[in-house]
Amino acid sequence: MSAKSRGTAAESTPRSGMSRSLSFFLYLCCFFAGMFFTNRMWTMPSLDGIERNLDAKFKHETVVSEDHDSYPKKAVVRTDDGLEETSELTNVIEPLDQTILDLERKLAAARAQQEATSTGSPLSGSSKIVRSTSKHKYFMVVGINTSFRSRKRRDSIRATWMPEGETRKKLEKEKGIVLRFVIGHSASPGGILDKAIEAEDMMHGDFLRLEHVEGYHELSGKTKTYFATAVSLWDAEFYVKVDDDIHVNLATLGMILSSHRRKSRVYIGCMKSGPVLAQKGVRYHEPEYWKFGAVGNRYFRHATGQLYAISKDLATYISVNQNLLHKYANEDVSLGSWFIGLDVEHVHDRRFCCGTPPDCEYRAQAGSTCAASFDWRCSGICNSSFRIMEVHERCKEGEDALWSSSF
Ligand SMILES: *[C@@H]1O[C@H](CO)[C@@H](O)[C@H](O)[C@H]1NC(C)=O
Ligand SMILES: *[C@@H]1O[C@H](CO)[C@@H](O)[C@H](O)[C@H]1NC(C)=O
């Protein structure tokens, strides 16, 4: 608060910042009301001066407001006409500006707090809140998990279910659907593998690079980093993970998700519960099998890893707690374990795990278009970079389904 404003404040009894700001506001109202009733508004010669002063003040304001803490305490903007009214107004407006800044800060903090309590996210004042930088709201972020070896798979997806270039941008802007191939870095940063991805990204612009070393802590580490990064970049209702050898129908996926948008914590996928494998050396071996009870038990239900979706609250939860969340041997089991103790609605939807043709084709003919198709025996479409074309031809949703949909 400036030295001048302290003079004004001294006339009133010391109160909280809130009520002081109120009284400044009332002061200003009275000031204008007084001018109105004394009919000075129309005759006052200095109105131009005031306006100029205000203009200068606000221009000044936009420059300094980027850093509130360095708000110059002594800065007084003057026009050189030296009119009484203008300096009087400056006296009122200056503390008022500061008060507005304070109020804005308080409001932002209160909003964050309220958001956290109403959604039940464990965000305390001290924890680092990952916030999206843009105010734009998205419907869903679809991260396609890919690897350095998968160029052919990416191209086959670009040639089938994923819109490219301007169409993809339009989808993002008009439908709020963000599509990205998700990949980290190689163990030797800036190496030939990273260069190849950079070149591919220059051409297509459809990558999300993670602070993650590919092949290291591969499984659940990448999942955590993906959700944390996606939540910080896009404020979306749903976050989806899909592998790069899956066929997806985006409008169908969007329709399914939009039917669950009223629920705040929802985990949607094809829910399964495979056996916990205790023997060493077998595929999907679980070193911590003893945690799951007697040998021969099954896991709790969890979404199969090929394609699943979680609501914003759950993605935020992962982002905030990523250092605490345990990684089991399998990525999909890990994700399920993070949610099994929370108030989460598990949604099982068969359309998230259709087979390749003829399965998805029959289903579509029966009126139930699939969101995702793959072969269970390959945990993706077998030989997908070749076969995804055929799957697309036979199981794709209507051409205009995506653009005519309203999410
Ligand atoms: C990503 O895909 C690779 C194979 O392309 C797979 O080995 C890995 O487990 C997947 N990661 C996640 C987090 O799904
Ligand atoms: C994949 O499919 C193509 C075309 O059908 C075939 O030429 C190729 O040998 C197949 N690759 C594998 C590994 O099965």
From TrEMBL:
Pfam families found in the cross-reference section: DUF4094, Galactosyl_T
Protein name as annotated: Hexosyltransferase
Stored Gene3D superfamilies: 3.90.550.50
Lipid bilayer topology: Single-pass type II membrane protein
Superkingdom of origin: Eukaryota
Cofactor(s) needed: Mn(2+)
EC number of the protein: 2.4.1.-
TM region(s), chain numbering: 21-42
Species lineage: Eukaryota, Viridiplantae, Streptophyta, Embryophyta, Tracheophyta
Species, as recorded: Punica granatum (Pomegranate)
A GO MF term: galactosyltransferase activity
Subcellular location: Golgi apparatus membrane
Keywords tagged on the record: Glycosyltransferase, Golgi apparatus, Manganese, Membrane, Signal-anchor, Transferase, Transmembrane, Transmembrane helix
Pathway in which the depicted protein is active: Protein modification; protein glycosylation
Any single GO CC term annotated in Swiss-Prot or TrEMBL for this entry: Golgi membrane
The family this protein is said to belong to: Belongs to the glycosyltransferase 31 family.
Gene field: LOC116205296
All residue ranges annotated as the DUF4094 domain in the record: 19-113
